[in-house]
Design a protein that fits this description.
This protein is of the alpha+beta class and about 500 residues long. The chain contains 15 helices and 21 strands. The chain has a domain at about 10-50 and about 160-230 and about 320-365: 3-Layer(bba) Sandwich (FAD/NAD(P)-binding domain). The structure holds flavin-adenine dinucleotide. This is Tryptophan 7-halogenase.
């Protein structure tokens, strides 16, 4: 325990995580705590990370960021979900939308009524009842307009953006709010005698930076949390075997889609993320099953524009730091662990880590109960996301390569097994531990991966079948008409937030 009030925070690392932390802490503490950040231009950042999920809107709102200004500054486009190709089986695709399916009919969830109709012979796709899916199919976008009865009120969205530009954007705000930036390379970390808390970091030019609290945003290295404090890492490669990625942006061809695309390949999967000024591409793969050269060639061959940079190779181990808060050091971003980017959750986990830090803020010292509570909440959040990502791999029928045979046969966490079983038997989905992904998210991926419930919920039977059919037909027509009135994604950007 340190009884003294918290006066100085040092953030080590100036990637997306470091500048998100700096901007948020400066905004919230309003000058009561001295905040410094050290980063090294020579080392640089990972330079990828372009797709986000809807809670990012809350982060930007917390910081009072104007959305149009942000979209312009980061060359962003809007994201309504992810289209998954070839994940269940080759030649098939499905959409994982943000937002909900349908509107409430009665006591059961909407999809249960849809399921009942389907069991009764209505051959209809659940996607037709998701506003964001229909908008993505038609290339439309608008923001919710505040009318709760209108179709647009169901537009739930996130962004694709240039993470480097986002970090720069946040840096300007953080510096304007008093954050001091140091350029330099951390060469050494000094621990305090006795309790082993971090006392200071020494830069390679001899400068020494002291603080009461250290935020490790140093990327995969985990300079403080692992390098100095030896916190330990829980390796999840046995469930998430991808360990490398190669990224290569290309010139934009055509209008940007309001969704990310993820295509399963022989040894992993590739992403396609449209931005205003380019298209982001990458291949996430398992090194035992493909060489770097082959992966690069595979990615290059699939580009739909001209390559704009040399391939950027990255290596990682999926998993999490055993504690994300250890003594007076909290790890955020890649320093805290890495789940592969299949559901665009890394930047969200930075945001979530910052929000939880604010709830457990050590303003008068370090209470172990708060540290334990923070670690428990972060662990549960990451584990539930991990389960969701594993589902995409495990529930495949593909057996055309060693990777897909492996993930299909592997044993999965009990928590995921239970989710799959409950859905398979009655189409039920329950959320635990305040988990990130909602009922809709799970349903989209469970169905998309070919898990079809054997029965629907009996509670849906309290309403006559014809009545349910009419409600659904009406809903479907309203969604279509509502989406047709929306501007195209490209026109929306041009009218509101076109980058210069
Ligand atoms: P980094 O960007 O690595 O930054 C580390 C910082 O620490 C840098 O400023 C560096 O200079 C500094 N540093 C390191 N060592 C020292 C030292 N000795 N001295 C001084 N400074 C030092 N996330 C998403 O949300 N969506 C995505 O679509 C997505 N796609 C991804 C795809 C891939 C292949 C990968 C690998 C990641 C992806 N991510 C994605 C994750 C995302 O890129 C990161 O979570 C995010 O950019 C945060 O990175 P970071 O700031 O933790 O680390």
């Amino acid at each position: 325990m340190t009884p003294a009030p918290l006066k100085r925070i040092l953030i080590v690392g100036g990637g997306t995580a470091g500048w998100m932390a700096a901007a948020a802490l400066a905004h919230v503490t309003r000058g009561t705590v001295k905040i410094e950040l050290v980063e090294s231009e020579v080392i640089g950042t990972v330079g990828v990370g372009e797709a986000t999920i809807p809670p990012i809107l809350l982060f930007n709102q917390l910081l009072g960021i104007d959305e149009n200004e942000f979209v312009r500054a980061t060359q962003a486009t809007y994201k309504l979900g992810i289209r998954f190709h070839d994940w269940h089986r080759k030649g098939e695709s499905y959409f994982h939308p943000f937002g909900v399916y349908g509107t409430r009919i009665d006591a059961a969830s909407f999809h249960q009524y849809w399921l009942r109709l389907n069991k009764a012979g209505l051959d209809d796709d659940l996607s037709a009842y998701s506003v964001t899916t229909v908008a993505s199919q038609m290339g439309r976008f608008t923001r919710p307009d505040g009318d709760p009865r209108g179709v647009a009120s169901q537009m739930t969205y996130a962004f694709h953006f240039d993470a480097g530009l986002y970090a720069r954007f946040l840096r300007q705000r953080a510096e304007a709010q008093g954050v001091t930036r140091h350029e330099g390379k951390v060469a050494d970390v000094r621990l305090r005698d006795g309790d082993g808390f971090i006392q200071s970091v020494r830069l390679d030019d001899g400068r020494e930076l002291q603080a009461d609290f250290f935020i490790d945003c140093s990327g995969f290295r985990g300079l403080l949390i692992e390098g100095a404090l030896k916190t330990g890492y829980e390796d999840w490669t046995h469930w998430l075997p991808a360990d490398r990625a190669v990224a290569m942006p290309c010139t934009r061809v055509g209008d940007p889609t309001p969704y990310t695309q993820s295509t399963a390949l022989e040894a992993g999967w590739r992403w396609r993320i449209p931005l205003q000024h380019r298209t982001g591409n990458g291949y996430v793969y398992c090194s035992p099953f493909i060489s770097d050269d082959e992966a690069q060639a595979r990615l290059r061959a699939s580009l739909d524009g001209e390559a704009m940079a040399d391939p950027n190779f990255l290596r990682f181990t999926t998993g999490r730091r055993k504690k994300t808060w250890n003594k007076n050091c909290l790890a955020l971003g890649l320093a805290s662990g890495f789940l592969e980017p299949l559901e665009s959750t890394s930047i969200h986990l930075v945001q979530s880590g910052i929000s939880k830090l604010l709830l457990h803020f050590p303003d008068t010292g370090f209470a172990q109960a708060d540290i334990d509570s923070y670690n428990r909440q972060m662990r549960l959040e990451v584990e539930r996301i991990r389960d969701f990502i594993i589902l995409h791999y495990h529930a495949t029928t593909r057996d055309d390569s060693a990777l897909w045979r492996h993930v299909q046969a592997m044993d999965v966490p009990e928590t995921l097994k239970q989710k799959m079983e409950q859905f398979r038997s009655r189409g039920r989905v329950f959320r635990y531990d305040d988990e990130l992904f909602q009922e809709t998210n799970w349903i989209a991926v469970l169905l998309g991966q070919g898990i079809v419930p054997e029965r629907h919920d009996p509670i849906t039977e309290t309403i006559p079948l014809d009545h349910v059919r009419q409600r659904l037909q009406h809903m479907k027509a309203m969604i279509r008409q509502g989406v047709e009135r929306m501007p195209t994604h490209e026109a929306f950007i041009a009218a509101n937030a076109k980058a210069p």
